[in-house]
Amino acid sequence: MSKPLTRRDFLREGGLCATAATLASSPLAAAAVAKGAPRGPGIRWAKAPCRFCGVGCGVMVGTRQGRVVAVKGDDQHPGTKGLLCAKGYSLPAILTGGDRLTTPLIRKGGKLVKATWDEALDLVARRFKETLAAKGPEAVAIYGSGQWMITDGYAATKWFRAGMGSNNVEANARLCMASAVTGFMSTFGSDEPMGCFEDLALCDVLILWGNNMAEAHPVLFGQVLESKGANPAKRIVDLATRRTPTSDFADTHLLMAPQSDLAIANGIAHLLVKKGAVDKDFIARHVVFKRGKEQIGYGLADKSKFADEPKKATFEEYAAFLETYTPEHVAKVSGLSVAALEQLAGYFADPKLKVMSVWCMGVNQHSRGTWMNNLIYNLHLLTGKICKPGSTAYSITGQPSACGTVREVGDLAHRLPADMVVMNPEHRAIAARIWKVPVERINPKPGHHTVEMFRALDRGDITCMWIQVTNPFVSLPNVERYRKGARKDGRFIVVSDVYPTVTTDFADVVLPSAMWVEREGLFGNSDRRTQHWDQLAEPPKGCLPDDWQIIEVARRMGLGDLFPKDRATYVKELFEEYRQFTVGTGKDLGTFEELKAARGLRWPVVKGRETARRYVEGEDPFVKAGEGVSFYKNKADGGRAVVWLRPWEGPAEVPDAEYPLWFCTGRMLEHWHTGTMTRRVPQLNRAQPGGFLEIHPEDAKALGVADGGQVKVTSRRGSVTLPCRFAARGKVPRGTVYTSFFDESQLINAVTQDSICPISAEPDYKKCACRVEKA
């Protein structure tokens, strides 16, 4: 870098926000970007979190006469301090697309036709009751989202588990963060990070494990660059399978082969152990060693089951396990140089350096995602570089409430709130007490995880499904299988959304939802920060909140006693009931009134005081005096964290003679998931109007394809035709092509595979084998 950049410089000038410059063509968005935002008569400003990624940026929302007219960054927000990215500045426009759904629709004669709310809700309730009566609780399912608000997810899990005795409750966070959950649970006995966003500024070395932070979490990356301006010795290491905008700002860009991250992490550990560069005192007091099952498969078969077989190990056994991960061997597997591996190990080995590892879906959407989470924690546990300011391991979340709703509320097929699980009789008893239902009502058998849920829909084991706030018939891997399954006779699908999507095309009933600040809500973000906002704008007439839709259907099924009856107070009542699960567990949430008054509070919250870092004496109220660090949630291992013996294993599919290229996928700055919201923002859509394929110029030359030419990408599952680009924002190495899935007119996920991490059941979107032909 030729000059130090502030985070404002980065967001304004870093090339990534060329998009933001196009906002000037919109009076609405231009007002939002302008410093200070509009001050016209009658504008009322109030706090809310951003509707997009898991950073949870603080937003000030300006409304006039019940409509959102502007947004600006919230200078009082302690996590993001007044900054937004291009998507954040576009928030007003996501409410006002011309094709907003405002009327319930019912499929009749093969076509969706307008209906009343009573007609639609009565039909949904009747079909759920009929399915329960005919086929039982395993035939019904609800599929939600990390974009669900906390009370949406809580209403769904209570309706299903306490009302219908079904555990077929899942959310799309299974597709992006499940391996983070199983990584946390298997290492620490509790989900979610121990550190906080402030650690990004405090670290001396930031290692990004397959994380294009500049595009995926630009406000956080702006904080990193601002801290680098104040500390020029700070080092950013970008470990990735392609060159990205993050690489341009990094001090070191390390290009690795897909799935070689497992070998790299073990190779670093090998060097640390060989050099004696481990914190023996920390290990003795805070660590145990375990090894699990190896050669665990890839979860490709329907109804595949997995049970790990953890066994205790010793440090000496761990050292012996690492013997094969020599720098020379790891270099051969990964493509990194021996010198690069030595440098990475050197950062961890130096007791003077504060090292922070950060990752997101590059690690999690991985056929060995749980293992890779474990291996990153290993490096920090071995060196004691964990739970310290600027020295920790941090998994960032992709969606705004994947943490607060899915992970904390327990909207996964085997979970209950606050890390509890349906298999544990004590946990079921707690849930039954809070829900005021017989404990026998709560089914001890886990439901279907997301991929298996849609396989079950294909097979006919599930025939009645409600999908809220997500677009699975674009976002699922190997998506053509599940699209075909959804069209089979005997399936009944309800979809709640704000705009027409590919998924609403498959629906028997479409319900129009109120969105973001059109309703009161709560999110929980990557920083363990739970944020509340009031209803600030009126939804279009005819739109209802997702949680209230669930409550109305439950009432029509005779299960109304499970839920509050007053529309004016039900959000508070639901949240305070849910909060009972968390109190005294180390995952304690602030009260509704505390959250209403604050710019979010990071749990555990005890006596109104939030926690910046977990497991640390003096910060975490559950760590006793004199303990220093205590991984108290991992009771099975005496309050110690686990260092796992996890091997490198290859991916489920690798290039061969028939499919000679790697096909990789990921995100981009301008668009969000399948583009349901952002492609309705004219400025964002003009900046990136459609999907494209990044390809190396030499690979394109061999195909006889020019920059911008059409190519057909084919895998063993399906194909898609895209324009190719040589000089895109990212640059792939030879033998690799790359794209993003935001454009629902191009089914990228017809190509991707539905292999999963057998422990987390999260799919591996990041890599499969393909061939590319001139179209």
From TrEMBL:
Primary location class: secreted
Protein keywords: 4Fe-4S, Electron transport, Iron, Iron-sulfur, Metal-binding, Molybdenum, Nitrate assimilation, Oxidoreductase, Periplasm, Signal, Transport
One Gene Ontology CC term in the entry: nitrate reductase complex
Cofactor(s) this protein requires: [4Fe-4S] cluster; Mo-bis(molybdopterin guanine dinucleotide)
GO biological process terms held by the UniProt record: cellular respiration; Mo-molybdopterin cofactor biosynthetic process; nitrate assimilation
CDD domains linked to this entry: MopB_CT_Nitrate-R-NapA-like, MopB_Nitrate-R-NapA-like
Residues engaged in binding substrate: F741
Top class in the EC scheme: oxidoreductase
Stretches assigned to the 4Fe-4S Mo/W bis-MGD-type domain: 43-99
SUPFAM superfamilies xrefs: ADC-like (SSF50692), Formate dehydrogenase/DMSO reductase, domains 1-3 (SSF53706)
Family: Belongs to the prokaryotic molybdopterin-containing oxidoreductase family. NasA/NapA/NarB subfamily.
PANTHER family in UniProt: PERIPLASMIC NITRATE REDUCTASE, RESPIRATORY NITRATE REDUCTASE
Protein name, as recorded: Nitrate reductase
Taxonomic source organism: Mesoterricola silvestris
